[in-house]
Specification:
The protein is mainly alpha-helical. Helices cover 84% and strands 0% of the residues. It is rod-shaped and about 125 Å long. It starts with a helix and ends in a 12-residue tail after the last helix. Keywords: Coiled coil.
Length: 103
């Protein structure tokens, strides 16, 4: 006997083992199972989309924060350089003007 014939025989035997009410109950459960499976698949897709959006938002915020920190560091370095240059000018000895004599 081929496998398909054995399966058909098995299915026929299974149908004979169940009463019409049990067969109807099996169909209801199968329908409910399919409905819940589809619902779970939809929920999974929603969650994946939310996760993708959250990751995208987090990456955007990280980039913004990194840029803010870079600008802050750059400004701080510019201030430090400007302060260093201005203090160098005030502490440097004054050179005599041309033509004047130093006593």
């Amino acid at each position: 006997m081929k496998l398909t014939e054995r399966m058909a025989t098995f299915l026929d035997e299974k149908d004979e083992l169940l009463s019409p009410q049990e067969i109807e109950e099996e169909k209801k459960w199968e329908t409910e199972f399919q409905k819940r499976r589809k619902e779970l698949e939809r929920e999974k897709l929603k969650l994946e989309e939310r996760k993708r959006q959250s990751c995208s938002r987090l990456e955007e915020l990280n980039n913004r924060w990194r840029n803010i920190e870079l600008r802050r560091t750059s400004r701080s370095n510019m201030r430090r350089t400007a302060t260093t240059l201005s203090s160098d000018e005030t502490t440097a000895p004054a050179l005599p003007e041309r033509g004047s004599t130093v006593l």
